[in-house]
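input
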Amino acid sequence: MATSVQVVEKLIERLGLEAGPLFARHGIDRSLLSDQSARLSQDAVDAVVGDVAARVPDPAFGLLAAQCWHPGSLGALGHAWLASSTLRRGLERLQRYWQLLGQRTAITLREDADGLAVVLRNPRSDPVIAAATTDMDFSVLVDMCRMNAGRDFNPVQVRLIRPAPADTAPYEAYYGAPVRFGSAERAIVMPRAAVDVPLATANRQIAGLLDRVMAEDLARLDRSDVVARCRARLHRRLASGEVTATQVASDLAMSRRTLHRKLAEAGTTWQQLVDTTRRDLALRMIEDPRRTIGEVTFELGFSQQSAFARAFRRWAGTSPTQYRESLAAARSAGGHAEAPAG
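output
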């Protein structure tokens, strides 16, 4: 995403370098950085980062990216992050729509013994560029959490694959947490007690609208990504009643059999995709106190409220009413109680 490269541009300038010549050297048109629909070559951006690393003696320079980002530079995903009801919801959005920012890396969420691990896949072969881009991604991610949850937010632990630098103090000072170098993975472990606390910045209506926009953007980004295309169609069709694979296959100009085959190649099934899409939408909708349980049932295409209740209990471990009551109790406690998992 061209606008996300604004972070690199501001970082270069903060380091006392000139961004113009560096971008020009690698064929990047700086005028595109304000174009919300433009995308830039990841190879070219990586080459710029490599040039910066060669000019800056401090190996921790990527941590300064935390001072260079803005929600608008991340497009709809940045605004959806701000509108998320909890950090967990925001992190789930990052996991789902990360490719809108760039297709070379990806994040996955995993429950660890110490908290919620955000694992970064960064397959860059150049270790210097991999280290710098990891620092940029992780520092911005932690600052995003601090923007929503408060400046006293710190992760539990940070894990980095690279060997420890001569001076590890900048990392420990920024993250406010132990940093393990030489780890088997790149990950930030978020405190479980903090990721489910309701956020004062939440706006469920805006978040829901942006989810639909991002699902459609992701489908357009990679027309061969049948999972993203199906999810975008499910967002549109679920409210109209029970959606079928035949209907969605027709929307995508393929046969039902071809759709099932492509989903299998992507490591999922039609039913799994419908279930996870409904789960994501249900958890978001149920957080809106203005929606009745019956309205949520209808909007997700369930024929009966009892069927929705059974599905919701499977997703969240509790009934829709109990889940909503737990959220209300957490809000009335000033956001210090923990919301239900799921």
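quick obs: Confidence is low (pLDDT under 50) at residues 335-342.
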